[in-house]
């Protein structure tokens, strides 16, 4: 439709396939808020209380998110995920085979606002991950808080997601070869650094995932998702402001961050809370062999950690011109 008063409007004659993709993205980015409203809705309807009591009892006692999860191939293969992956689009590129004779601890970078590429690319078959890495069962890990939200937690479990806790990771990796966990290493702190023109990674003092890889003898694999930082814009608050103080307090006490992000909406390209249609190219690097050591020293962990950082830097430098042809920001590891 054009641009009016600074707002860029989307055309009305959108192809049907793109409308399906837009519907899918709206569902994905609103469903958690709808699920958070479920307890309040239930309170208004006493007739459903007996069923609700049974469900919330199950929710309280079900710890499958700490015990390997319960992924559903039927759910992961639904057409919905193809629509989501094609919205951006999201594509997975492998530089090396991941042999199912080993287990893997995979670091996903950068976090972005919602780690969208990790969720869709590896939590579903939208980008065809099982065809790219056959015979490898991959679990995208998230905060325990996700698995406390009714209905949403069951959807996450069907995607194959599990908790990012130490107990959960150990329960997956000790099952032996053919298992892989994806850890978004930068976490909530990195989300607050997300901007399209930056490639800032919080990694310098993140040793936990390396230690667990050594304990279980799991190979380390770096991933860089080119475009993850570009699907949203963010208003980064300055240190010392009230808003920044509130953001840091939420992150410290609740474990998640609240970035002030913005993107597009159904009708406009430069205003709204939906992600931009910008490609996310997920490049999976070469595995770093890790020798199993049950009680690794700090020096050993730091040595392997340094190898991982160098491999990640090399991965970025080799691919940045391909996926950022307009010019790549320098990789800044903090």
Automatic annotation (TrEMBL):
Highest taxon of the lineage: Eukaryota
Keywords noted in UniProt: Acyltransferase, Transferase
EC number: 2.3.1.22
EC class: transferase
Protein's name according to its UniProt entry: Diacylglycerol O-acyltransferase 1
Organism expressing this protein natively: Entomophthora muscae
Gene from which this protein is expressed: DGA1_19
